[in-house]
Specification:
single chain; about 220 residues; alpha/beta; Rossmann fold; 2 domains; 6-stranded parallel sheet; two-stranded antiparallel sheet; 10 helices; 8 strands; globular
Length: about 220
Amino acid sequence: MPEPGKAVTDIRYLLDRGYPGKGAITFVCNHYRLDIKWRYVFTRVVFGKDTIKSRREKTVRCEDLEGEVVLVDGYNVLIGVESALKGEPVYLCDDGFLRDTRGVFRNYRCSGLTKRAMDEILGVLRGFAPTRVEFLFDSQISKSKEMAWWVEKKLKDVGIEGGAGTSRHVDHDLKQSNGIIATADGNIIDEVAKAVNIQACVLEQLNLSPVIIEGVFR
């Protein structure tokens, strides 16, 4: 089997010339006989130059959050940090964001790592001193109201001004919000003015390194 880096080069070549992402990834993976796992990884990791440029231009460093309002894509960020704590792959993507490949949003359940993951996220946020932090959780996931209540209490406990709530349309609500959006969801990043790669800051705090596929992050 060829190195994934060769497939990345070919996918990127097609994306840079305007080919649809799904079609480009399917074509290249079929050519190299790569299994479904790699198709899913490449969908999350590899992007064309226009997308990379746009997303990097709106990326805000964690160091620049002081005095800002931050809105957190609750499950997206929480699951990404949990994945890292579990030792599961978290990839450094072409656009500079970190993404896991668990794909468990609709089936998400709290685990023994949930508290630690949230503590790490809040620790990073408190350290960079935003003026307010709001978490938003998908109400269609079981026990999201309880999750929001728990997170709101933890915000108060650590002295962060803010709150937590649920929505049936988290993506839409975040896209329409003012402030800096903490998410790794590319569809949201593409529609907002500013986004922060909060998961990268958490991993740095934990001294954990993301997976880097050869040829990725240009």
